[in-house]
Specification:
single chain; about 375 residues; alpha/beta; Cytidine Deaminase, domain 2; Dihydrofolate Reductase, subunit A; six-stranded mixed β-sheet; 10 helices; 14 strands
Amino acid sequence: MGSNLRTSASIRGHYCLRDPMNASSAMLSLAARLALRAAGDVEPNPMVGAVLVRDGVVLGMGHHRRFGGLHAEREALADCRRRGNDPRGAIAFVTLEPCCHHGKQPPCTDALIEAGVVRVVYARPDPHAVSAGGAGVLERAGIACELCGDSPLATRLSDPFVKRVTTGLPWVIAKWAQTADGRLITRPGEARWISNELSLGRVHRLRARVDAIVTGIGTVAADDPLLTARGVRRVRRVAERVVLTGGRGLPAGCKLARGEGAGEVLVLPGFAGRADLGAALRLLAAERGATNVLLECGPTLLAAFAAGGFIDEAFVYAAPGPDGAPTGADCLGACCVWLAGLTLVRSKPLGRDTEHWFRRNGLAG
């Protein structure tokens, strides 16, 4: 097809392809961006997006919108037909190998075969024992299938799902704020919060899409947090609030002990050492259905999670330096050790603060 892609008149303006990437990369990246709209709505299912193209024209687009709802391929086919387009002869670009099993929805392979799609390009194989093998089903039906890694965004999109399915561990996101001199805790007499309102708003939006928020007993004793998403337009998931106590009980009268705020409070008293952290994460994945877990804890527990190699993603909110200049990702000091194995994806100014986003395997496209 080449890179000379265009959108049909009914879709033009919804998405404009201006980049010079090859067609597969561009279409898979578009599918991935569609899928990201449902972050927090589809778990424990993976985020998946799909785009239908024929002769360089985008005929239809779709993504898995909510758990239990239509899968991305069926959404794209429905969008195609709504717009008066015939999907027969089209190429389907999908971020994850189409499923071939009957679950809450019928197999996507059936829908693609019935629609007359001639080729399927997908960014990642489905690792789940139940739903994998869709490419083989399609090929036996005469539909050419291609695994394409040209779009890192499409490939990495399903990392949390793949990690949970293949390792039994959830995707772990660390978050912390730090001063320009590397402190995570303010000194007596300083303002309670290191980060500004814009940074705090970003944290609340993050809380609004994860399955669980994990903290330690030290943070509960020092800060008496609620660990809830507040001031966001829509809470996509009400996170379970998890406290690792190391054998201690919750402080009497703290907000979590009183049951304040939305979301269940799970106290795990027996988890203290590094090996126990892995067991706690497995418990959250297996027994609580957690795919994405957010760490909101102090430096001791953060260091323990990092030393165990459990951190997959991190958001670091850096306050400006004494001269008001932004604090770069190369100035995170001793905290950099917690970011081992992670790649800087983006540094974004938030007023005078800077949000540094790190992720395992990176993310681009």
